[in-house]
Write a structure and sequence with these properties.
Helix 3 crosses helix 4 and helix 4 packs antiparallel against helix 8. The N and C termini lie far apart (57 Å). 26% of the residues are buried. This protein has 8 helices and 2 strands. 73% of the residues lie in helices and 2% in strands.
Length: 269
Amino acid sequence: MAGTTYQSPNEYIGHHLAFNELSLGESAFMTINLDSVVMSIILGILTMGFIWLVARKSTPGVPTKTQAFIELVFTFIDNQVKATFHGDRHVFVAPAALTVFLWVFMMNAMDFLPIDVMASIYGLFGIHEWRNVPTADVNTTFALALGVWFLMIFFGIKVKGLGGWIHELFCAPFGSKIWVWPANFIFNLIEYISKPLSHSLRLFGNMYAGEVIFLLIALLAGFSGIVGAIFGTILGAGWAIFHILIVTLQAYVFMMLTVVYLAMAHEGH
């Protein structure tokens, strides 16, 4: 129980919210959160490996339950992309949307791992700080959002040409008159800055809040005796069931925003 290991609730929460950091210099900007990086890479490999394995074993006849489920996910994502993106979605956008959805979903789903049990397992290997949920780290969500942001700029230049992209930057949405160029540029600059911020902070905020709530429920179970343990178990089970919706919904929202931003890059104002 949490009470036999930690002296206070503050110590308990602080320990579980501490990152396993690798310092590359004296500056705080030269620090890598190893847990977020390692968990993201492992989950990405496992997710894509699972999809590859199902595709490799797929049959044209009666599908297995696993194949039927994967095909259902494929069809759902493809339909969502089709409704938003009007170009050739199968070249890049639909596969990217599928990858983003499954990867973010798997990272979000790490929130279901028992916090204290996992901490005990990590402790056996001498690891005393390890965050299970990469998307509860703003660095992870911002990196994902920046990746989408760079893709948005790349496709904008590819589709419209560098000249067309710059022209749109200064001549939309208020017109091409020279005296409205500054207003157009400021408007578009704010739009470009706000997209990765809102894209990343929405996912981070929801997942971080979910992680903190699990910690608070664990505190109730660990520091409040038998009655607290009973209520903590009930609340934990209820929150875990509700959190399934949050985990899935946040992956879906992040995926849909990715598709919307890429669709906007292919279209003009």
